[in-house]
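Consider a protein example.
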Amino acid sequence: MKFIKLLNIPDLIILALSLFIFRYGFISAQEAIMPALNDWQYALLAFSCVFIAAGGFFINNTAGIGHKEYDISEAQSYNLYIVLTIIGVGLSYYIANLVGIPLYSGIVVVAAATLYIYATSLKQTILISNILISIATALPIVAIGIFNFYPLLMPETQPVLGTLFSLLLDYALFVFVIALLLTFAQDLANSDEDYNSGINTLPIALGKDRTIKLVCGLTILPITMVLYYVNTYLINLLWAMGFCLLFLLGPIIYFTIKLWNSKTQKDFAQLVTVIKLVLLFTSVSIAVITFNIKY
């Protein structure tokens, strides 16, 4: 049971749900193209991302810098990490071979390497660790676009595929920004433990008050992004506009106001949950937008 907790199962569930929402709420709904991966192939790609993330969570919790002590040896920890990572990379390589371009598996390898480097080397490096984790969080969205669209790229399909892939890149950018907020909120929530473990995060280097002000200022970016996309693309899509304003913009504004007045670890832990929900709602939003356009 302790082993299961070390995999961060709730986060893996959010990742899996998000990937399948992108499949059935967006990719499968495109009548103009047939994605390169069928349902079971896409499922393997999704599980590849989940296994890579599980390996990253596990090595971070059991053998990374500043990890807590668990009833598991360092050798067992690394062995299990290797098994999870090999499964994830192996699945991605298999799918990449199915679409005829093995090099596509490289994006999954990059994600795995990023998580490992973060846990074992750069976890205590201010800002770099936050950026690395945010990149790894956004990479699965880029991966599903590359695996599903790029094998179909031809002159006659380029306009449609270019538009669809551009949309996925916009989502990846937004997820990157939200994930960055998440890493800062987690640093604030774990600042006492990180200090005792010798990890030099932003709240430890600048202090909690300055970090809170900095993160509150950073929330202007996702708020601006949501308002821009709603005003530019969703102004005539009532359900999509309402969903984005209520379930994306609303929680981010709540996060900003709540963060400004947060003092305790419990306060920051609640904000971590809020941002994780924003990540899930971000995936749901693409299904809502697709449904609203279609019907």
